[in-house]
Every structure is written in structure tokens, then in C-alpha cells.
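Session log. Operator J.P. requested a structure for one protein chain; no other inputs attached. Running the standard single-chain path with C-alpha cell output.
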Amino acid sequence: MSKDFTNEDTISAGWGLIGDPHQGYGQPPILLALNQTVTDASKCREAYLTVLVDVNYNDGQICTGGEKRKNTCKGDSGGPLYWKGSFEPDISARTFLLGITSHGPGSCMIEFPSVFTRTNFFMKWIVRLGEWNTTGDPDCQGHLCAPPVQDINIAEVMVHNDYSLSRFSVKNDIALIRLETPAKLNSFVQPVCLPYGAAMRKDFTNEDTISAGWGRLGDPNQGYGRPSILLALNLTVTDASKCRKIYSTKFIDVNYNDGQICAGGDKRKNTCKGDSGGPLYWKGSFEPDISARTFLLGITSHGARSCMIEFPAVFTRINFFMKWILDHMKE
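Structure written below.
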């Protein structure tokens, strides 16, 4: 929490513009990653003051880069800034979320650092439970209203120690969040079942699932924005070989044996930017004397650059990571 990351090597990632659009640069079809060095706080602030913008590490910001033609760009906002290392002598290097892409100079090609939201500054921030409509609280439909949302401080974030992100693959895309205080369960805040028993071996191909999130309704260049209410979408699990073949056309490796699973692929019916980290649910039962329950089958990971084309979305497959989840859970 107190480490000064100045001059540390980091990795940022995103599908943002490759350069200034008026110079003919567009957006890549695949996820790109970039190595950048954390900039000294005073140096970054001095650079931004020349364009009358205040950047302050003490207000939860951090900067990287500054090399010509090597920067984040429009479309990368909200993406991750990773740092690999360890804070304990008996624990090997892990991947930590150091920042979230915030903003930068008008041109992506000049010698100017990028600004990120500094994650460790906001570790005492919150997880919100029971949200449906982001424009009000409590959420109501007619005369039926849910209890007020629950904002709970985050005590710890545990990112998978083998998480990796490159232009060709996303692996072990999973993390756990430990809350400072327990959630209060009600009709609108309930736990979801995790896979067990037969679910650990089940092939979910062609099974019906439900994904949910506040992600974009479509491509922003076609006028689509983000919804104010939580949306859900029925998706069918895609055959493993079919999904891998589709992504191989974009030189991206998707492999169910590495803990991934795909769903959807219908035109104009997909997850989109802003849905990452959301759930993929499956309703069913593995025991004859137990009625259908809702299981967390996956976590939204990534997909095609356009949300409107016939391309399946990729999810982290939960039953593959059950040992890791159980090993890292705490009371």
C-alpha cells in the first residue's frame, strides 16, 4: 500500500487506437499490451501543467511512459496497468493491478506520459451490492422497491498469480475480493452456487446460460452507449473447437483446457466493453433430489473488438479454478 513504484516496469493493455486517427491509424482487432515505466510524480505533474491539467499522485493518480509513439490511446480507458512482483520473501512474483487507464495527451504519438487511476490509493474503496439502476437508490419498479444498496469496503484483492495478458492470449483471468464486513442477504442480494461434484466434469456445450452487466449496448461509433440498468442476455455455450478456430483467425489463443469457455456468437447479441468481470450463470442440478439452482459457470473475460458481429465471447471457466478459489478463500 505504501510502495513508491517510480521507475518500475509495468504492462498496460487495451484495444485503443494504434495512433492518431487523422494520420490513418485505427483500432486493432486484437488485444494489445505495452511495456511502460512508472514516471516520477513531480515530472508527470510538471508535464501536465504545461497543458493546464492537474495530475497528482496524492489524489490517487500515477503516470507511465512518455516515449514517442509508445503510449495508451483513445479506447484504452478503463484498461489495466499491471505490475509483477512480490511484497513477501516467501511468495514468488505475482501480477498486481497497479492502475486503471484514465487519460492522456490529445495525441498518442508525442512524448507525454499517460495517467492512470492508482489502485492502491483506492483499496479502501467499496464493492456495491444490490444495484440494478445506477441512476437512483433505492431501485424501484412501480410500487415494488428493493432495499438500499450495500456499499462495503474492500479488505483485500487477490489476483491469480499466473495471470498473463498479451496480444495473443488472456490466461488465468480471475481474482477474488475479500470484503471488510459480510454482506446482508435479502431478496435482492444472494450468493450464487459454485460448481461441485459432477459439475467439475460436465461438458456444458450447447447449454443455455445467462450473462449480465452494464456494458455497452453496441459499438460506440454507431451511437450506442451504456445502459443505466443491469441487463441480462441468454447465450448458448459454444463448442470448444469451434470457438478456438474462430479466435485463431485473429491470432488469439482460446483454450478450454486452460480454463476458458465461450458462449454466444449470434449477430448483435453479445457481451461488450464494460461487461468484463460480470457473471455467466447456468441453471440446473447435478443431484436428483435437489431442484435447479443457479451456478456461476464463468466470468466475462474478453471478446471481439466489435460487439455486433457473429463472434462468441470468452469467459473464465469457474470449475477449472475451483481449487485456486478454495485455497484463497478466508473467513
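Operator note: The radius of gyration is 21 Å.
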